[in-house]
Task: structure prediction
Amino acid sequence: MAAGTEADLSADDAGETVTATVIGGSGFTGGELLRLLAGHPNVEISEVTSRSKAGKSVGSVHPPLRGADLRFTEPDDLESVDVLFAATPHGVSMGQIDEFFEVADTVVDLSADFRLESEAQYDEWYDGHDAPAYLEQAEYALPEINRENLEGAELIAGGGCNATATILGLYPLFEHDVLDGDEQVVVDVKVGSSEGGAGGGEASSHPERSGVVRPYAPTGHRHEAEIEQFLGTSVAFTCHAVDMVRGASATSHVFPSDPVSKGDLWNAYRGCYEDEPFVRMAAGGSGVYRYPEPKAVAGTNYAEVGFELDPSNERVVVFSAIDNMMKGSAGQAVHAANVALGFEETAGLECTGLHPVGAP
Amino acid sequence: MTECVECGAEVSLHDDLEAGEIIDCTTCGAELEVVDTEPPVLERAPELEEDWGE
Result:
C-alpha cells in the first residue's frame, strides 16, 4: 500500500526511514498523527487502522490528507513495522500491548494506559490495569522532563493534554526550588472541545457546547495523577470547557514559602526552557500577546509558558498554553518518537503557527 | 551583546545603535530602551498598561 501525501511519498534522502502504523487513525489525534507523519522526513506510513472507517481513504475523514494514497484497514492483521502509534481510547492499548510488540519494535501510545507508574495508581484513578508488567518499562513522552529516558525507549506513554500544560508551566518552579512541594498549588485549565474526541456526546453537540464556560471534573480529574507523579506534589485542579476547538490554557496559582523575585523566576524558566525547541516564553513582554495564548500555538507542537509576580499576595501566577492535539497528544508523541529513534527532534514538527488566526 | 534587564538573556544589538532607540528581547519579549551606547545600557521601556476591566 502506498502511503503519504503527494508531497511526501518518498523516503528522505538524507536519513534513515522507518515504517509506521497508526492504530485508531480515524479519530482527531489519529488524524493529527497522520498529518505529522505524512510530512516527516524519516517516516513512511505503512498502515492506518480504523474499524469504523475500514476501506475509506484517510482523506475522506481528515481533509488535510485529501489526495493521499492511503486507506484505513481493519485492525485485525497488523503488518510488521518499526514503530506503532496507538491513538485508541483509554483501555484499548493495555489489552493489545502484547500484539503491538509482536509487530513493532517501538510502541507509542497516546492514551492514558501507560502514563502512570503503578497498578495501584490505575486502581485509584482509572479502572485498573490489564498489563501492569509493562508499566515499569514505559517512558513518559514529554521530552522537556524525560528526554534522557526517552532515548532508545521501546514503550512511550503520551501525556495527558491538561497534565502537559500544567506540568510545563510549573516544572521550572520545582526544578529550581522556588517551590518545594509543601505549598498549595491551584490550577485552572480552559480546554477546547476536541479534548472530548471525535465521538462526541450530548454535552458535546454544537448547540450545547457553543459559547460555554462550563466547569467539568471540578475535582478529582484523572490528570492530577500524572501531575502529582512528575511534580511530586498534589494540586487542586479544575477544568472548564470553553468555546475553542483546539487548545488548553492552564493558569496556576502558587504561593512560595520564601520571597521570590522576577529575576528568580526568569532564572528558573530560562534555565529549563531556553534551549528547548518547543517551548516559548511569554511573561509580560510586549505586543498584543504578552502571556501564553492558545491561538499562538494552534496547530503546532509549541508550548508557551509565562508567569507574573504578585508581591501583595505573595503569589506567583503561572500561565501555559498548548494545542491539546499537538503538544498535548500527537505532536508530543512524534517529538518523543524522534528522541527515542535518534531523529532530529524537530523532524515533522516545524510548523510555527499562524497569525492572525481565528478561534483555534 | 548585552543582557536583558527583564529576563537576563543575551540581547544582540546592531552596530549603529542610538540612544533612545527601543528594541525588544527575543527571549522574553520585553521592550527595552537604549539609554546609552558606549557601552550599551538598556532599561525597561515604559509601556501603556492594558486594563479592560473598568
